[in-house]
Amino acid sequence: MAFNRRNKRYLAGWGIMLLAGGGIGIAIRTLVDLGTDRVSPSVMIAFMVPLAATAIAACLPWWRALDEMQKDAQLAGWYWGGTSGAILGVAVAIVLGGVHSDLFRGVLLMGGSQLACFVLCWIGWRVCHRARAA
Amino acid sequence: MRNCLRDLRIARSLSQGELADRMDVSRQTINAIEADKYDPSLPLAYKLGAYFQIPVEDLFFNPFNGEFVNSR
Questions:
Q1: Which of B21, B24, B29 sits opposite A69 (nearest CB)?
Q2: What is the model's pTM?
Q3: B40 touches chain A (CB under 8 A)
Q4: Does the pLDDT value for residue A101 go beyond 70?
Q5: CB B28 to CB A2 under 8 A?
Q6: Are residues A42 and A72 in the same domain?
Q7: Minimum CA–CA partner of B33 in chain A
Q8: What percentage of chain A carries pLDDT values higher than 70?
Q9: Is A2 part of the contact surface with chain B (CB cutoff 8 Å)?
Q10: Which fold has domain B5-59?
Q11: Are both A41 and A59 inside the same structural domain?
């Protein structure tokens, strides 16, 4: 890989993403380790939401360093691969723990959050790209 | 979309990496466009056209040419 301007931006983006992701992962783990008996769930969520938002923001330099084909590959991979993986995960959770298990509840929570954010992003994208009818 | 990007690049003695640097994309993207494995966006197509100083229609071969002749 030639060490040109694009690749420098790409590597810098990766670095920021890994450092921020690692740091935020440790911070969230520390928070979880404190336990809900010492820290109320609402306080925990109030700390976690900005941490999660920061983790997503830390991905922006990497995303901006990608060219259009690399972005297309990411979008196709996350949409089709992520959706297929989620369906597989639901099936495995049902087989392993049944529909009343904590495992299945976790899968549902994850799937529900993903679906909600997908709908928000989809609406946002459509709103940003709408034009007045001719 | 079929194109003559490879011929134009070679005529200018450019490697795929050098053209990629000038277009601010990855070498893999230039390779995929040349091999007709990826259709570039309009801005990138026009950027390539501007770089080689030719119209986009001369760079990418329109697969719909002649398709609508009798439908107008």
A1: B29
A2: 0.85
A3: yes
A4: yes
A5: no
A6: no
A7: A69
A8: 99
A9: yes
A10: 434 Repressor (Amino-terminal Domain) (1.10.260)
A11: yes
Asked if B67 has any chain A CB less than 8 Å from its own CB, the reply is: no
Residue at a domain's end among A20, A40, A66: A66
Structural domain range at position A58: 1-66
DSSP code of A66?
S
User: How many domains are contained in chain A?
Assistant: 2
Q: Are residues A40 and A81 in the same domain?
A: no
Report the complex ipTM: 0.89
Secondary structure, 3-state, chain B: CCECHHHHHHHCCCCHHHHHHHHCCCHHHHHHHHCCCCCCCHHHHHHHHHHHCCCHHHHECCCCCCCCCCCC
Structure confidence by residue, pLDDT tens digits, A4-30: 888 888 899 999 999 998 998 898 888
Longest dimension (CA), chain A: 59
Give the model confidence (pLDDT) of A114-126 as tens digits: 999 999 999 999 9
**What pLDDT score was predicted for residue A3?**
75
Long-range CB pairs of A46-53, under 8 A, 24+ apart, other chains included: A51/A24, A51/A27, A52/A24
Q: Do A67 and B21 make contact, defined as CB atoms within 8 angstroms?
A: no
Indicate the residue of B20, B27, B44 with minimum beta-carbon distance to A68. Answer: B44
Model confidence band, residue A39 (pLDDT cutoffs 50, 70, 90) = confident
Taking an 8 Å cut-off on Cβ atoms, the answer to whether B25 and A68 are in contact is: yes
